[in-house]
Amino acid sequence: MATVELTFSALPAHVRTARLVATAIARRTGVEESLLDEVRLAVGEACSRAVEAHRAHCPGEPIRIELSDDSGRFEVTVSDQAPSDEHEHDRPLDLSMLSDSYTSGFGIAVIAGLADDVEVFPSPKGMRIRMSWPASANGRAG
């Protein structure tokens, strides 16, 4: 399993960089070409949500992205440090049970529609969004 970690400050301009890095790594891990736009859009949405939350609550703290390939999956986790006191969970949220205002306000419904598998872990110490797509076992040489 290979993992790439990226941290960036809460500036909207850095969202583009995160999208580009995620798309490049997805391509190398063997994610189908037809899914790369979904990877780019989902990562952009998760990072934009994190930037917005950080700018409101903790602008000096970095946003963290982990990208990995494991067991035939390309996985991206976007973590922020903005407090989320509305929903305190030690386990992922059931996305089908979220209210429309919650999902539309944070773009999670969009992410769930783009990624093959999504888990959201909100806590008072921040939110983690994990999303994944199928990838070939050996990736692509490049």
TrEMBL record:
Domain Histidine kinase/HSP90-like ATPase: 8-133
CDD domains for this protein: HATPase_RsbW-like (cd16936)
GO MF annotation, one: protein serine/threonine kinase activity
Kinase recorded as keyword: yes
Statement: the UniProt record of this protein carries the keyword Transferase: yes
Keywords from the named record: Kinase, Serine/threonine-protein kinase, Transferase
Protein name: Anti-sigma regulatory factor (Ser/Thr protein kinase)
Organism for this UniProt entry: Nonomuraea soli
